[in-house]
Every structure is written in structure tokens, then in C-alpha cells.
Amino acid sequence: MGRGVPFMSWQEIPRAQLAAWNQRLLREPTASIRQYPLLNEGHRLSGHIWINFVKPYSRLIEWCRRQTTTTRYLAYRSGGDLTSYAVVVGIGMPGLRLGCIVDGPVTFAGRQMEPREFSELLNWARRNHYLAIRVTHPDPEYVDYLATLGEVERTDGVPFYPHPFSELFVDLSPDDEAVLASFQTVARRNIRQAREAGYHVSIDRKAGALERAWSVFEARSAQKQLNYRSLKMWKLIMNEAEPYHAAHVYTAWRNAVPIASILVLRDHTTAHNLIGAIDRNALGDAPSPACLLHWSAMQHAKRLGCRYYNLGTRSGSVYTFKAKFRPVERHWPLPATFIIRPSLYHPWRRMLPTVTRFIMRQQNATGPAA
After folding, report:
1. If 0-12 CB within 10 Å is exposed, 13-18 middle and 19+ buried, where does residue 80 land?
2. β 247-254/257-266 pair status
3. Model confidence over 192-213: pLDDT tens digits?
4. Residues 275-295 as b or e (16 or more Cβ within 10 Å = b)
């Protein structure tokens, strides 16, 4: 490149530098937790658990998944200035790989993604032999804008790699009394009853705290046929997050016995409830501490600077519980799948219904993952 011409390029971030990027992203209001290395590295080392398969082939398929799922961290610099960042999760084999960018790319300092930047990202994908790149993001205007910058289908080209369709958020910006008053009456009553029952809520950012509470998740898994991702993966994520106070375990105890527990990760603006469980056998006839547990997490998240608390999706029977907090539901726009290699992508699209039906049959055979 000639002298005087500013250097512009997407560069891959070495894994040795990823910890510093967690800290950098925590300072950026638009960066979602789904773009943080601490979460993506945990998923990567666990084989990106995007589907559960029935035994006896589960170990073999999980091994294959680890070999065929890659995570690439990219940063774009223009004239030496950092402007954008993206995590690309690739699924498939070299030459037959699909990429997913969830809640990204991230742009810094409130700036808009420039057409040349995104064009260079697609060129990077082409050089690395991706068939397509699927982009999902909560901002419909951002996705609509990106969709003008390449050959695109407004459809989900990788439907078995999860992304949210909608999520439930509680606004923490009012004072605590106002937030509490916004809940349903039953939620406030449940919080009061749990306090009167003598529950103690512990808050801990160390991975050992999750291990001490893991019996709750094991009990819930047996009771509801849930397939929780491994304790090893969540401990790895917590270890990565610990220096930045970005992950906390909240556990409700009674008589030194863990009754309910949740794991919450935070980015700059939002605390995200990732997993949770209550041991119904240990609970017995006592009042449930679940509302008190989430209210404690909300108060703590607010002290850490978060404005929102993400309860997750409305799916399943737990929506009745989540509705007690009167959350606001935000809907994600349709994904934008950017076609990189049409001659291979279009046959893949024709095969997709068959592949999707197979995966859904496997998912139904094992129960939901958490």
C-alpha cells in the first residue's frame, strides 16, 4: 500500500490479547455480551453446544462439533484507529463453512459502520472460504443498513446456531422503590414471603460458588429433563469474567442448603440471566426464593452500573414467572445472511429444510438445553 494511504483492514486478534478485549468491550455501551471473548471462549472450548444429540452417538458428535466449529475475533483499523470489532463463529469444514455474527459487528464511539468496512469484512470471509455470513442484531435499523451493503437474504441461513428472536427486559434506571412498584403484586408478595422464610442470598463472582450450587441444577435437570451445558464450561466463563466483575452467581440458601441459583453475566448496559434453577425437592413446602433471587441480582446489577436486566426469552412455562416482573419484550429483526459463494450456498439452502428437521428431531429426543 502506497505511502500516505491510510491502512484499512480487518485483522485477526491473537488469543493472547482476548482478555484485554473483554475490558475494552465493557467500556463500550453498544457491545453485547454475545460479542465478548469471555463468553465465546467458553462456548468454543465446550464445542459450541448448539444442539444436543441422543446417545450413544453424543460423544462422537460432540467431538466432531469441536473439530468443525471455529471462533475468529476480528478488529478493523483505519489509519491506525480502532473502529470496529466482530466475533465470527464458523460452522463446517474448510471450504464448506458458514459464519455467524450474533449482536455484531460492534462499532466504537457511537460511529456507524462504513460501507468499506463491511465490504472488507465480506472480502475477509471470501478469502477464508465461507459460504455465507449470517448477521443478527437487536437494532432493526442497523440490520437494514447492513443489508444494503452486500448480496443478502433476509432469512436465517444457519437456523440451528441460536440467536434470540425476542427477550424480556426490566428497566433498572428508576430508583429501587419505583422498580419494585412496577412488578406484579404477586412478585412483591413472593419477595416478602421469601425474606420472612429466612433465605440468605449469596453473591459471588468466583467459579467455586457455582460449583457449590451446582446440585440445584443437577436436581432440576433430573426433575424437568433439562440438558444443562457442562459445569466445566460455565466455570471457564466465570474465570474469564472474574477480573472484570462481569459474572456473578446468586444463590438462595436455607439452613446451609442451596435451594435456587442463577448465573448472570453483564456487559456495559445490561445484566443477562443466563441459567437458573430451583430444587423443588429441597424447597418442599417452603415459599419459593426465586423472585427474591432475581430482585437481589437486579439491585446488584444496578450498583455495577447496568441499566437493564435481561430475563431471557419468553419460551416455555417459565414465562408465567418472568411476567411477574412486568418486563418489556424486545423483538429482534430478521437475520441478514450475506451470500459469499452463491454456487455452494444455494445448494445448502435447498438442503436446509431436511437438515433442520433432522436437528429438531434430535433436539426433541433429548429435551431443551439450558
Report:
1. exposed
2. antiparallel
3. 999 999 999 999 999 999 999 9
4. bbbbbeebbeeebbbbbbbbb
Q: How far apart are the first and last CA of the chain?
A: 49
What contacts 1, CB < 8 A, 6 or more positions away? 7
C-alpha cell at 344: 455452494
The cell numbers describing 68, all together, are 468443525
DSSP code, position 268: S
How many residues does the structure list for the chain?
A: 370
Return mean pLDDT, the chain.
89
Give the integer Cα–Cα distance in Å for 37 and 212: 25
Backbone phi, then psi, for 129, in 5-degree steps? Answer: 65, 35
3-state secondary structure of 274: strand
* Residue 56, preceding peptide bond in cis (omega within 30° of 0): yes
Q: Which residues pair with 337 in a beta bridge?
A: 134, 153
The span from the CA of 193 to the CA of 25, in Å, is 39
Whole-number pLDDT of residue 92: 86
Yes or no: say if 52 and 58 are a contact pair by the CB < 8 Å rule.
yes
- 114 exposure class (CB count in 10 Å sphere: 0-12, 13-18, 19+): middle
Percent of the chain beyond pLDDT 90?
A: 71
Q: Before 6, cis peptide (omega within 30)?
A: no
In angstroms, rounded to a whole number, what is the distance separating the alpha carbons of residues 122 and 337?
11
Name every residue whose Cβ is closer than 8 Å to that of residue 367 and which is 6 or more positions away in sequence: 52, 224, 225, 226, 227
Cα atoms found within 13 Å of the Cα of residue 193, Cβ hemisphere only: 13
- What's the one-letter identity of residue 106? V
CB 335 within 8 A of CB 165: no
